[in-house]
Amino acid sequence: MRAQRMKPIWMGGVLVGALSGVFAEAGCKSRAMHTPPTPERAPTIAEAFESSAAARTTMVREQIAARGIEDKAVLAAMEAVPRHRFVPPALAGRAYEDRPLPIGFDQTISQPYIVAVMTAHAEVERGDKVLEVGTGSGYQAAVLAEIGAKVYSIEIVEPLGKQAAHTLTDLGYQVKTRIGDGYRGWPEAAPFDAILVTAAPPEVPEPLKQQLAVGGKMVIPVGEVFQELRVITRTKTGFDERRTEAVRFVPMTGEAQKQQPSP
User: Fold this and answer.
1) Distance separating alpha carbons of residues 81 and 79, to the nearest angstrom
2) Torsion angle in degrees (nearest 10) through CA of 139, 143, 146, 151
3) Pairing state between β 212-223 and 101-104
4) Is residue 71 within 8 Å of 55, Cβ to Cβ?
5) Which string of DSSP letters, residue by residue, matches 45-76?
6) Whole-model pTM?
7) CB-side exposure of 161: number of CA atoms within 13 Å?
8) Which of 30, 51, 52, 110 is catalytic?
9) Could you tell me the residue ranges of all domains in the chain?
10) Is there a catalytic annotation at residue 153?
């Protein structure tokens, strides 16, 4: 409350009334300046969950469905998986943006739309056995597991693979993970109903093609400077290959780097 000014009264050579009002105002201001600010309330777990759920809903509606992805299982999985858990904590607030994000070790988590496109192209159904080459953050594996697939995932960068395995387990996703070069797949678990490769080799690895079940599909980015997404389907007599959109993935390392692209 603002102090009222008193009528000036002279006492002993001091202007008591005028000064008392000044001192009163100064005292009020001093107390106000020293009042500690009210700390901002941290969001509750429920509020944080609702916020991330709303962000996922917006992501699916504006980035994925609006671009033509209609597979209901893919849309539902993308809306269910907490993408922010698969990025570094400093980037959690950007997890639902329409872009890839760095996850360390010169690797990235793919743009949400690309994850949806690859999953839709693979035509994964509940109960399918799926191989993922390049676990990365673990997000693609989580989306596949959310659909109901039995997922096997290989990562060549050991610290990244271990972190992804921990995140997947912590979230309750039953994904079999392995550290190693994914160029030759996971032969003892083959054949697979689908294979998704999240790094780009210069050419399609033949061992991966041979691990597809008849009717199974492999979705893989191929190329070096210029890359394209290919969908390869195994038939009873061989393989059908379809080339879709231009993409940009990190290169597949390990044995893939020894392979020379065909002219």
Assistant:
1) 6
2) -80
3) unpaired
4) no
5) HHHHHHHHHHHHHHHIIIIIGGGT---HHHHH
6) 0.80
7) 17
8) 110
9) 45-258
10) no
Reduced to 3 states (helix: H, G, I; strand: E, B; else coil), residue 161 is: helix
Q: What does the alpha-carbon distance between residue 232 and residue 46 come to, in Å, rounded to a whole number?
A: 43
Distance of CA 31 to CAs 4, 26, 85, Å?
Answer: 17, 9, 44
Task: Name the nearest CA neighbour of 116 among 84, 75, 80.
Answer: 75
Distance between CA atoms of residues 249 and 226, nearest Å: 10
At residue 40 the predicted structure's pLDDT band, cuts being 50, 70 and 90, is low
Nearest Cα residue to 119 out of 173, 165, 70, 63: 70
Q: Which pLDDT belongs to residue 17?
A: 41
- CA 174 vs CA 86, 91, 140, 141, 165: distances in Å: 16, 25, 13, 10, 10
pLDDT digits (tens, 9 = 90+) for 185-202: 999 999 999 999 999 999
CA 199 to CA 134: how far, in whole Å? 6
- Specify the CATH architecture of the domain 45-258: 3-Layer(aba) Sandwich (3.40)
Whole-number Å distance between alpha carbons of 173 and 217: 23
What is the radius of gyration, based on Cα positions, of the chain?
29
Output the six-digit token pair for 262. Answer: 């065909």
